[in-house]
Amino acid sequence: MRVPLSWLREYVDFDLSPEALAERLTLLGMEVRGIERIGADWSSVVVGELLDVAPHPNADRLSLTRVNVGAGKPELSIVCGARNIEIGQRVPVALPGAVLPGGRRIDVTKKAGIDSEGMLCSGAELGLTTDADGILILDPATEIGQHLSDLLGEVVLDVDVKPNRGDALSIVGLAREVAAALDTQAREPMVTVDESGDATDAHVSVEVRDPLRCPRFVARYMDGITIRPSPVSVQVRLMAAGMRPISNVVDASNYVMLELGKPTHAFDAARVTDGHLIVRAAEPAERLETLDHAQRDLTPETLLIADSTGPLAIAGVMGGAASEVTGATTAVIIESAIFDPVMIRRTGQHYALRSEASLRFEKGQESRLARLGADRTAQLILEWAGGRAAKGAIDTDPADPPALRLVFRPERIVRLLGVEVAAGEMRALLNRVGIETAPATAADVVVIAIGARPIPLDAAGAHTALVAIVPGHRRDLAIEADIAEEVARIRGYETLPGRRPDTLMPTYRPDPHAATDRIRDLLSGRGLSEVVTFSLIAPGDHARLGDGRDDPATIRATNPVTVEHSELRRSLIPELSRVLVDNERQRRDDVAIFETGITHRWTDGQPVERHQLGILLAGLASPPTWDAPSRPVDVADAKGLIEWLVGRVAVGRVRYEPATVRAGVEHPGRTAVVAVEQASGTPVELGRVGELDPRYLAAVGARAERAIYAVIDLDGLARLAPTGRRITVLERLPGVDRDIAVVIDRSRPAGEVEDLIHAAGGAHLRSVSLFDRYQGPQIGEHEVSLTYRLRFEPGERPLEEKEIDTTISAITQALSDRLGARLRA
Amino acid sequence: MDLEAFSSQLTALRDRALTALEDAVDPDALEEVASAYLGRKGELTALLSGIGALPAADRPRVGALANPIRQQLDAAVATRRERLNSIALEVRLAQERIDVTMPGRALTRGSLHPIPETYREIVRVLGRFGFVTFDSPEVETDELNFQLLNIPADHPARDLWDTIYVEPPASDAATATSLEAPTVEAPRWLLRTHTSPGQIRAMREMRPPIRLLTPGRCYRHEAVDASHGFEFFQVEGLMVDEGTTMAHLRGLLDEFAHALFGAERPTRFRPGYYPFTEPSVAFDIQCVVCDGSGCSACGRSGWMTILGAGMVHPVVMRNGGLDPERYQGFAFGMGIDRIAMLRHGIPDLRAFLADDLRFLERS
Asked: Which sign, positive or negative, has the C-alpha torsion A270, A275, A281, A284?
């Protein structure tokens, strides 16, 4: 809401700088987002008097004027192209050297051969009105020579009115807030209508067929009016408030909307058949051309203002083009009604028409404003457009509803706020926002929450409880807590002391992110960079992974901001690849990144989230150093990370199995399923590790020929984490290392060898690590030699060499039996 | 040979040995000398093995003569060995000199993303006051995201959240036509616009006293600019019991702001509006850029809003299954991204999801 301060001052007195006023309003909950100074950019624009207006000797379309810009100043000779100037008028004059809005500089320039010593200004050139054709003609009494900024300069506050305070979407409403802040009184406009016409009902009748959606309808009739532009001061004020001036009648309606917050509408009376207005639902197949000249197919939910021949307006949202006030209009019917807010909101959304009027209607309107708005509009039309107002108004429900009695318990408010405020002080504070208070009675009940059963007051409660008499415009006050807020904000939050919580502590709950945070620390410590990527990805990203556009498991946005971000990711791979590509563009080819993120999918009609760890490696495995070359990353790097990570956070042994690959995404020969085997039970599958298919990398635009990835299920990993790892105390008995070189056929997976070593390794086998792999002339052509270091650790007694020999024999036997392996000497 | 002759041979041997030891200039030569005189096949052994030639009466005195000499020679070897080892070590150390000004062998730096790290910092601070993380889903229903939070359909406050909705799952259509299930209206799915649905879920899951933080990704249908994105990160705080007051909210938030933005930083409450709190406030800190003198970062006001908060609305409390007459408490919500931007001086929200490693490695 844009608030010109000159307008605000009509309804409340204040002696504060705009900044100080803005601060007070902000601290009262009416946040001022900006302060605009209109006229601050007019330099050297003064009021001048036209002493002479003569035709320009060299140009038909131009005039040559002599202008008085104040006593003691030389007369100026100014060439002007506008047609609306006459001798004696007072006009804005930009003196040579002046700078106008937009940075336009005015100098002495030759116009059709004659020097023009400045410029006469139009309203548009000054940003004051929309009129760019004519010079802005000022009031004849205006003092000559004064700076225009002193005359028409304005300070405008941009106030962010919250959705619950529709009453403050008005100058009068904000004047009430200023008054509350300063503990003074606000005023309302003095509304009197000089009713010189005959009776209104001789010209207008109103039939409300849907009183639920239109509980009140006020109509007035005026004739003999002359449509013309509003007075300059009105146009300037409307512009400052953000509204384009149209004509005196339309401006009057808009002026009342801004001033009182009451939207009204003026129909050209000549276009309303028999002056009979009908408020009804639209009928099937009805159409209406609205003011914006769009043809609207009306739905039956739409409430209309109609006459006997058809729709005239969409109630509360927009008028119709056919009954619009035009230059030929001489009589108008003013509509000032109350409509169901929900209906207005739905209608506005349905037709994608949100007007200043509908924004106010949908927040709810005080019933009293129906009559006040009609009268004020009539008063302003009389003032600006002349004519006669008919006697009285049609009013379908003239009785204003009684004020809401809202019971509150001062001690309950104290308990909520945590600061002692005496009941008397509360009453005084409420009084500043126009809320009268009175003692409650035993028959009163306290409304805790709308929809909940109110709490009756007992005798003791009634003794201390109070009743707030809520003025009609405060439709936001409905429960006891609302009164608490009024007390707190009027008193000022600076009076609320801060206290550290000293109430009961909750029961212990483990931190669900602890395991993930541990993993993040570990991986970043290993040199990986954590990334956080988009959760909404493109359908093409999923399609590349093989999840098509019709895959039922994909969660899709109905109204995405862009199709590039319209599906919730089912995998971390696309965005990790995107980060690779983006960084490659920055000439950063060595990428080692990870993300702990959520993937989404529908499962049995429910959205299911999975917490995953994604790793992507590309480029060199480590920075090249001065004494050693680097090498490209490979799958074993990612595996090493996984094994190390699992070893650090969980209990169990990592195993890999060849995976069934996603064609075109994963390298067919370099993709494995990652599982963790614990002492008991079947291995738990945790994810995948491998190399991305070069075709996938090419498709996403990566320059890297190889990229290594891993995806690990974090929830699964967390389940493998012990709540207190068993740590064996080994006394001082030494461990024993044995190396064995196993020769097997190269087609056999190494994973099986390791499995067998573990299976046959007995209770003391602590770790198995592959430290050499050999193919060559010393063994068969189709063989490979794998050398493992087996670490045995003792239990409660020392390890006997014999025991280890037996175990090694058992291992050898198993390898020989199951894999046809032999030991290499 | 008599004892006299034996003794002089012994002395001569000793003198030769000592000279030879002195002449040994490296450990290997020394060991050779030591072995030549004192070894199993050395001269001393050879000489002593010749005592059979002595008269029987003299033989017992040989030990008294020979032992001191052997001890003297052993000691001389040890001394010489120590001396030579020490020289050798010094030579080696002198040869091993490196350019100590050279850099170390570089490790990849690694980094943690500012968003999760900022959340961790928030938990670190509020965890001291008993707040623990409570996760809540990103794909929500209209009911939990709005209605139960006192934002009915067609409420003007809905304008505060531009919502991204989600196409219903394929099986919803099936459920609707299923004969067994009574006709329940299928939920309207959406991407949560804030973390506030966590309030309802938490209150339904546990009894007071409650102190929780619900962090995570939120979504809004918003045009992207330096301070808006359609994906962003929020954290919701909730504290409910029988005596939690607005003064507690103020006290807690002050502690929070002082922990994250400096112990001296002024803070303020000002009235705000949220349908799910009553009263509602905005919590401001003095501008971290200009320290209150007014700059473009704070819109010349000297203050920056870091979160919205308020006392849990009685309707929300009821929807969470708690009696609003008995229980009361507060909720607050803040943008993790915004806190991170303010703490690290990051001017543009878009940097967070762009994941430029040059940006991340500065974190």
From this structure: negative
